[in-house]
Specification:
Helix content is 26%, strand content 37%. It starts with a strand and ends in a 5-residue tail after the last helix.
C-alpha cells in the first residue's frame, strides 16, 4: 500500500493516527531551517516518527498525538 503523503498541518491529528492504526504509513513534508524534509510516520504496535536525523518511538496513541501536535505534523 502506498503511503499517504501530506504537508505538515494539512491533516487532522486523529485522521493521521487512524491511518497509521490501519497499517498505512504517512509521509509528512515539512520545512526545517529553510529546507524541505520528509518525516515518515508508522505504527506496528509501537508508534514511530522517522525524521531525517532521528527515529522517535512512542508507546501509546496519546504519546504519538502529543508528538504530532508538538512538531506541527497534524492539526487539531
Amino acid at each position: 500500500m502506498e503511503p499517504l503523503v501530506v504537508d505538515a498541518g494539512e491533516v487532522e491529528i486523529d485522521e493521521l493516527l487512524d491511518t497509521l492504526e490501519a497499517g498505512r504509513r504517512v509521509v509528512v513534508r515539512t520545512e526545517l531551517l529553510g529546507s524541505s524534509h520528509e518525516v515518515t510516520l508508522r505504527h506496528d504496535g509501537v508508534w514511530y516518527c522517522d525524521t531525517p536525523t532521528r527515529l522517535h518511538k512512542h508507546d501509546s496513541r496519546e504519546e504519538m498525538r502529543a508528538c504530532l501536535k508538538r512538531q506541527g505534523y497534524g492539526r487539531e
